[in-house]
Write a structure and sequence with these properties.
The complex is a heterodimer of chains A (565) and B (215).
Chain A: H1 18-21, H2 24-27, H3 37-47, E1 51-59, E2 65-72, E3 77-84, E4 103-109, H4 114-121, E5 136-144, H5 146-157, H6 164-170, E6 172-180, H7 204-228, H8 238-242, E7 245-250, H9 255-260, H10 262-280, H11 287-305, H12 312-333, H13 342-353, H14 356-367, H15 371-374, H16 397-407, H17 409-412, E8 424-429, E9 435-439, H18 454-465, H19 474-480, H20 485-496, H21 514-524, E10 527-533, E11 536-541
Chain B: E1 2-4, H1 6-19, H2 24-39, H3 45-55, H4 60-63, H5 81-90, H6 92-96, E2 101-103, E3 106-107, H7 113-119, E4 125-129, E5 132-137, E6 140-144, E7 152-153, E8 156-160, E9 169-170, E10 178-180, H8 182-193, E11 196-197, H9 201-206
Antiparallel strand pairs in B: 1-10, 2-8, 3-7, 4-5, 4-8, 5-6, 6-9
Classes of the chains: A alpha+beta (565), B alpha+beta (215).
Chain lengths: 565, 215
Amino acid sequence: MNREAAPRAGEPPVLRAPETVMRLERLGANHQTRLSFMRALLRRLKAEGWRVTRPVWEIDAKGVGRAVYVAEGPTRSYGLVAFAHDLPDDERTDRVIAEAWDATFALFDGVPTAADLDRMAANVPLQEAGRCAPSELVLSRANRSVRLFAHVVDRLARGLQPERAELEKVGYLMRTTAVYGNGKFGIADRERIADRPEFAGPFRAEMLAVWLIRAFTVDLAEHAARMLAPGTAVRLDPDLRRRLGVGNSTGLGMAPFLVNHPALLHRWLLAKETALARVRAVEHAAPEAAETFPRLVGRARRTVGEWRVADARYAGRIARLEDDLARLSSWLEAGALDGPYPFDRLYRRAEEALSIEAQELLVSLLLEPHGGLVDDLAETMSADEEAPARIDGRMSLADLRRLIEDRYAWALGVDYAKAEAQARFWYVSAEKLEPRLGERGRESGHELEQPLAVGRDVAALRRALGGAAGTESVAAFLLRHPEHRHVVRRVQLHATHPYAEIQGNLIDAGLVPLDLLRCKLAFFGASKFDPRSDRWLRITMYQDAPYPDELDRLPADDWCWTPAG
Amino acid sequence: MSALSLNETEALARKAARGAGLPWGLAEETGKAVRWLALRRLPSLALLADHLEANDGRAYAALAPEDEAGVWRAPSGRLCPLVVGCALLDRRHDLAGGRTVETGPVAHPLLLLPAVARAVDEAPLGLAWEGVELWVGPEGLFVAGDALTAAASPWSRCGPAPAGPPSARSLPVGDGPVPVDEATLARLAALALRTCVPASEASRKGAGAASGDND
C-alpha cells in the first residue's frame, strides 16, 4: 500500500481530482451522506427543538379534504397545506403531463388563515395550471402507491398490522412527482428565504415539505382505515411506520439543473470531497469510530439487501455491490483499521479492488462516524451564482485556450463528427415545458437544442480560437462571436470551481441520463434508486427517519442505514 | 394583470430572447438584465417585448458595433442595447480604469443599465443618453432626467462616474412579484414558445417510465 501520499495531520487534505469525481459513471454512483440535505435539515430541527402540530384535519370519509401541519421553530413557523383528492385510477400518472393527483401540497410561510387555505384550495390542486403567491415556498403533489396503500388501509381497518414484507418491499405509501421551489408558478423566490438559517442550505424548504408530506401519507391511511371500520381500526405500529418513507418519481426534468448551476454543483462536490479528505487524513481511528465502523458496514449491507429494482442492469450492479461489501467486511475482520491512516488505506484498497458503486458507498460510510469532523461542511453547500457569472473580458485568448486544454481534455478528446458522439439532443417540449432527450436524425426539433452539450460546445470554442491572435481579449472575441458566450462563461468559472463541470458527453449515444438524476437525488439524501427506464427513476426519501411526533425522543440522524431488524 | 416571481421573470426573458434569435449566452444575460430591472420596479418585460419585436429577424451583425475603436455604431443604424450591455460588462475593468465608451444611435437604452450596474465593482460608473444621466455605484442608483423608457437615443455614453452621487432621485430596490399585463405576457410567451419543440406522440412516449404508475 502506497502511504507516501497519505495526507499527514496538519497538512491540507488531498482532494480527489475532478477528473475522477466528475465522470458521469461516478456521479451516477453517489449515495446519500451525512451532508445530504434531508439529514442536515433533521439535525437542525432536532437541535433547535422544532415542534409539529396538525391544527387542521378536514378529510371526509372518502378521503377528500384538507389538512395543515405546522412546523414551529425558534423564530418562525411553516405550514404544510395538504389537499387530498379522489383520483380515478386512469388519471394517475407520475409524469409531469399529469393534470390531477391523489394529493397536492404547498408549504406556506407561516401559519395559514382560513382565507389563505381557501385561496390555496383554488390553486394548489391545479399545480402548474394554478397560480400561487409568494407566501408559498414549495408546491408539490403525490400519487398513491396503489397496492400498498390499499393493503395498509385494509389491514389497519381489520385491526391488524400490515405485512412487514409487503411494506418493506415498496417502502412508501405515496410518491411525490414534483417538488417545486424558487419562484415556480408564482411561489416565493429563493431570495425571500435564503437568509433564514433554517433555509440557508440548498433545498431545505423542499426537504421540510417532503418530511411533512410523509407524515400526511400515514395519517391519511390511518384515517381511511378508521372511516372504513371505526370499531376495529388500529393505528400503524410505530416501528413499522418508520419503515415507510415517502417516494419520489422523477424524469428528465431534473437533469438540466446540474448543468445549469455549475457553481452550486461545485459547492456540493467540494463539500463531499473535503469531508472525505478530512477523514482520510485521520492518523489514528478514534476508538468509537473503530468500534462502530464494522457495525455500520453491517447496516449498509442490510440497506443494500433491501434495495430491490426492476431494471436488470441495476440489479447486476447491486449484486456486485453486495459482494464488494462482503469483502469490505472481511477486510475489517482482518484488522483493516489497525495502523496509521486507516481510513485512507481502506479507501485506497477499495479504489483498487471494488466497483465504483462500492467505492462511493464506502465514501458515505467513512463520513458516517465522523460527524464532528465533517458536519460543518453541510453549511457550505450554497453558492453565490451571480459573481462567477460575469465574464472576465480582459483574459487573453491564449490564456483561455490554455484553460480549455488544461481543464477540458475530456471534451476535446471526443470526435464529434461521429454520429454516436452527437446522437442525442436535449430539448424542451411545448407540452408542459417538459425537458426531453431526442434522437438526432430520427426525431425532429434538433435545431431547438438546449445548451447542455457542454463538451461539444467547448470543443467548438477551442476550434474557433485556433486562428485567433493569442493576445486578443476575450471581450473583443465575444463581440464578434457571441455564439460562444455561454461556454466562455463556463470555462472561466472552471478556473476557480474545479468541480463545476460534469466531465462527460451529455449527447453521446451511450449517455445514461439516470446518472444525472441520481447524483442530484443522492445529495438530497434519497436512497433505493429504482430505475424505470434509462431516464426515469423512483427513489425513497426519509425511510427509517423519525416522524415529527417522535423527533424529540429519537436521534435525528441515525436512520440512513437500515437498523438491525 | 398578472404577477410573476423574479425567477419566472428571468426565465421568460431568457427564453423570449433566445426565441427572438439571440445566441444562448446573450439570452442568459438578457434574463439577468430583465430580472435586475424588475427587482427595481423599472420597466422590464414590456420594454423587452418592444425591443425583441422591433429587432425580430435581424442578424446579430446588423445590431452589434462594427468596430470598437471610436464611436460604436451598428450597420443597421441602431445598436442593440443587449449586445452593447454585454460588451460593456465584458469591459468593466477598462471602464473602471478610466475608459469611456461612446455610441451612436441605440435602441431602448434603459436595457443598457443592468449590465452597467453589474459591471460596477468599487468605482461608480456613469451612464447617459439623450435626456438621462445615471450614476451607478455601490451606494445605489441615482437618476436625473425623465427619458428612461425612450424607444431610442441618438447617442449613449458609459464611463467613470463624476465624483459623488448627484443630487438626483435615487431608485430603490423593490421585492415581491413583478406585475405584468396579459398582453405583454402573451407577446413574450409567443417568442419563448419558439424555443420549444411542438408536442408529438412519439416525443411524449419516450420521456416517461417504461412501466405504469398504478402499482
